[in-house]
Amino acid sequence: MTMPNLQDKICVVTGATAGIGRVSARRLAEMGATVIVVSRNPRKCDEVVAAIRQQTGNAAVEAMPADLSSLREIRALARRFLDAYPRLDVLLNNAGAIFTTRQVSADGIEMTWALNHLGYFLLTHLLMDALAAAPAARVINVSSDAHLMGIIHFDDVQFERRRYSGFGAYSQSKLANVMHAYALARRLEGTSITVNALHPGAVATDFGKNNSGAWGKVFKLFGRFTIGPEEGAKTSVYLASSPEVAGVSGKYFYRCRPKPSSRASYDVQ
Fold first, then answer.
1. CA-CA-CA-CA torsion sign (145, 155, 71, 250)
2. How far apart are CA 5 and CA 183, in angstroms?
3. Staple 181 to which of 31, 82, 197, 233, CB 3.0 to 4.6 Å?
């Protein structure tokens, strides 16, 4: 199958130094896109940029390190991008993690909510003018079928009063990713910007291995029964590049096809 030509496209990929984010960044670079690699570790960002340039022959790959759990760093990232580029064609919100013990961000926000949801929400909002400047921009939220078990605890999204559950916090954030995509798609209806969410599948990456002890061992064991990042990145790359989804918005995708998301995700009240 012929790859789309993204020679004139500018793409931001968050969480791009490992797993499906790294594969997605490389695949978009292979198609000729200008790719901005975002991750919190500057050294890893530089290493991945160098590797992608070498692998693809595309020199238009740049590192913009930022900790996406930090509101200050998200704002600094947005300013840096807006100072450097006139528009944004693809925003792939991919960065995320699961935390088996409750942690808080530099802003005092529960870490799962800060990184997995507020990071998507704020970065997209701050880059909206750049997205609007593109002929046909695409916003893509990497969610998960974990959202099917998600409940948004509107009275306690940070698990300050209820007992903390790593999976509960994670599935809540993934439901928020889908609801954010749907809400933004409704608000942007009739514009040149499309917004979709996706489930990448159960992917064998470094995801979850930030946890130590028994939970870290569980994630490593789980990795034996999952697909690889090349397969897991396919839907992200498809939504970022395929002409088949031009103009398609407000959908949830798996294996490059739309599928229903949870009943709760369609609640607009």
1. positive
2. 30
3. 197
Nearest to 116 by CA among 103, 144, 97, 140: 97
How far is 240 from 251, CA to CA, in rounded Å? 14
Nearest-CA neighbor of 170 among 219, 241, 108?
219
- pLDDT tens digit string along 193-243? 999 999 998 765 454 444 454 444 444 434 444 679 999 999 999 999 999
pLDDT, tens digit, 9 for 90 and up, residues 250-262: 999 999 999 999 9
Helix intervals (H) in the chain: 19-30, 42-56, 71-84, 111-112, 119-126, 128-132, 166-187, 213-222, 229-232, 234-241
Element containing residue 63 per DSSP (H, E): strand 61-63
In the residue annotation, 170 being an active-site residue is answered as: yes
> Beta 10-14 vs 34-38: how paired, if at all?
parallel
pTM as predicted: 0.92
Quick check: helix, strand or coil at residue 102? coil
* pLDDT value at residue 227: 77
Q: Which of 170, 182, 238, 252 is catalytic?
A: 170
Q: Looking at beta carbons, which pairs linking 54-59 to residues 24 or more positions away fall under 8 Å?
A: 55/26, 55/30, 56/26, 56/29, 56/30, 58/29, 58/30, 58/32, 58/33
Residue-level pLDDT at 142 = 98
Residue matched to tokens 């990071």:
119
11 burial (CB, 10 Å; 0-12 / 13-18 / 19+) is buried
